[in-house]
């Protein structure tokens, strides 16, 4: 399995929780959240749409992530990068991820 590492800002709609939890069984939970990376893209001006990734974390770390991540937190994520095409749009997901939250510095939120 190929691994990818990315860093970015946790994003969600205003007023919604940044992490959603899904119970697969009585003993296994999956946490899902979105990360926005703007460092790769070059745009003139301040309008940087960035690249969005949907991240899935399983197991015990899922519960920890759900209680600690907030909108605007800067995180580093390592996991399997999956590309999906839906309605002619390409989506990038990171599955079986490990999350490192290097510091609690708020970044720009989209």
Automatic annotation (TrEMBL):
Gene3D superfamilies registered for this protein in UniProt: Nucleic acid-binding proteins (2.40.50.140)
Alphabetized UniProt keyword annotations: DNA-binding
Region forming the signal peptide: none
SUPFAM superfamilies tied to this protein: Nucleic acid-binding proteins
Any Pfam family: SSB
Single GO MF descriptor: single-stranded DNA binding
Protein name (Swiss-Prot/TrEMBL): Single-stranded DNA-binding protein
Lineage: Bacteria, Pseudomonadati, Pseudomonadota, Gammaproteobacteria, Alteromonadales
């Amino acid at each position: 399995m190929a691994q990818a590492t990315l860093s970015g800002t946790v994003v969600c709609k205003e007023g919604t929780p940044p992490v959603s939890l899904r119970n697969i069984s009585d003993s296994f939970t999956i946490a899902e959240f979105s990360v926005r990376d703007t460092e790769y893209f070059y745009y003139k001006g301040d309008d940087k749409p960035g690249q969005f990734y949907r991240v899935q974390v399983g197991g015990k770390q899922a519960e920890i992530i759900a209680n600690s991540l907030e909108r605007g937190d800067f995180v580093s994520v390592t996991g399997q990068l999956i590309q999906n095409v839906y309605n002619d749009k390409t989506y990038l997901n990171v599955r079986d991820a490990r999350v490192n939250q290097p510091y609690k510095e708020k970044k720009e939120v989209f």
